[in-house]
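Researcher: Here's my situation. A collaborator sent me these components and asked whether they could plausibly form a single complex. I don't have experimental data yet, so a predicted model of the whole assembly would be a useful starting point for our discussion.
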Amino acid sequence: MGILQQKHIVLGVCGSIAAYKVAELARNLALEGALVDVVMTEAAQRFVGAATFQALTGRPVLNDMWDLPEDGVVGHVSLGTAADIIVVAPATAHTLARFAAGFCDDLLTTAVLATRAPVLCVPAMNVQMYAAAATQENIATLRRRGFVVLEPAEGRMAEPMVGKGRLPEIATIEGEIRVLLGRRNGPLRGRRVVVTAGGTHEPIDPVRFVGNRSSGRMGYALAAAARDRGAEVTLIARPTLLVPPAGVTMVPVETALQMHEAVLQACEQADILIMNAAVADFRPVEAATQKIKKDGKEELMLRLVSNPDILGDLSQRRDLYKVGFAAETEDLLANAQSKLSRKGLDMIVVNEAVATIGQDDIQATIVEASGSVLPLPRQPKQQAAESLLDAMVHHLNETLDAEPETSQ
Ligand code: CTP
C-alpha cells in the first residue's frame, strides 16, 4: 500500500501566481489515496477558484474559519491536530511572516499553530521579496522551530525578472512530502539504505562500452519505496534519462569498479543494501584512449578481465541486511539459492531475465535465507518495489526479533 493512502494532508494555498501549479499537486496526492483538505488564504482565492481544488480532491475547500461543517465543533483547531502533514504551497512572504509571528487570524495560520504534524513550506515569490532580510529571518526562525522550508527554484519569474523565487517542481514537493511522512512513522525510519540500480558500462574506448539491457527502473522504484518508508536512501547508479526520486541522495557511477568503491563506502554507515544493479561481470583489460579505428580489420579481439563481486566482498558484514537480485534464464530457484548462500545474503529476488530486463513489468520470486520461497504476481515494477520493500521490512523485523540479545 502506498504511503499516501488515507493520510490527512492539509494543503495551504497562498496568494501567489504559482497557486495554479499546486492544483497538480492536489490532484496527484488525491490520486494516491490521500485525504487532501485544501485551505486557501483570502489572497489565494484571487488567483485560483476553490472549485478547481474541490474537483481535484473530491473534498470541500476550506477558506473561512467561521464557516466550518457541523462535525467540526473545534473545527479550525482540529484541522491542524488531525493532519499527518501540513503543506503550504505556494508560501508567500506574508504568510511566512504570519507563521513566524504566531498569528492565528485565519484557518491556515490557526491550523499551523495548532498542529504537531510536520509543516512543509514551499516559498514562491518575487526575487527581491524572497531575498529581503525580513523574509530570510522569518524562514530562519521557522526552520529553527522545526518547519521544513524548501529552497525556491531559480529561473524566469512571472514578471520580467530572473532569479530565485520560483515554485520548485511538483515532483520535488511530492518527494519531500513522502520523506516527511516516512520519517514520521515509516517502518524504516532511522535506517540507512543503499540501493544500486541499472547496468554498469565498461569502456572499450572513449565512445564504446560493454554493457547490458538493464534500464534502472526497478532500482529507482526500490529507492523511492525505501524513502517512502522513512529510510535515508543512497542510490548508486549510472546516470540515465530516469529522474532520480526526490529526497534520495544520488551517487553517479559508470563502471563496476566505481560502483564497487561507492557501495563499500556508502555501506560503512548503512543498515541495508539492496543490490539491484546488473553489474558487468567482466571489463576490457584496458580502455583505448582514442576511438578504435576499423582500419580494414576483419576481426577485433577484446580481452576481458573479471570485475570484483561487490556483494561477495560484503558477505562477512553480518550487521548489514543484504538483498541480492538474480536475473536468470534457467534453473531460477536453484541459481538463486546458490547465490544467496555464496554471497551471504539475507534475501534474494529472482526473476526470468529475458521477460524482465528493460521491461515495465516483473514477475519476481522472493527467496529468504531461511529457505522460504514467495512468488509475487507479474506486476508493474513500481508495484513490485512496494511488495518487495514490505517483504524486506517484515523479514528484517523477524530477523532482528530472532537475534540473541547481546550481553551487557
Ligand atoms: N553482483 C555484485 N557484483 C558483481 C556481480 C553481481 O554485487 N560483480 C550482485 C548483483 O547486483 C546481484 C547479485 O550479485 O544482486 C547476483 O548477480 P548475478 O549477476 O546474477 O550473479 P553473478 O555472481 O555475477 O553470477 P552469474 O553472472 O554467473 O549468474
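Model: Some features of this prediction you could bring to your collaborator: Residues 187-399 form a domain with the Rossmann fold fold (CATH 3.40.50.10300). The longest helix spans residues 381-402.
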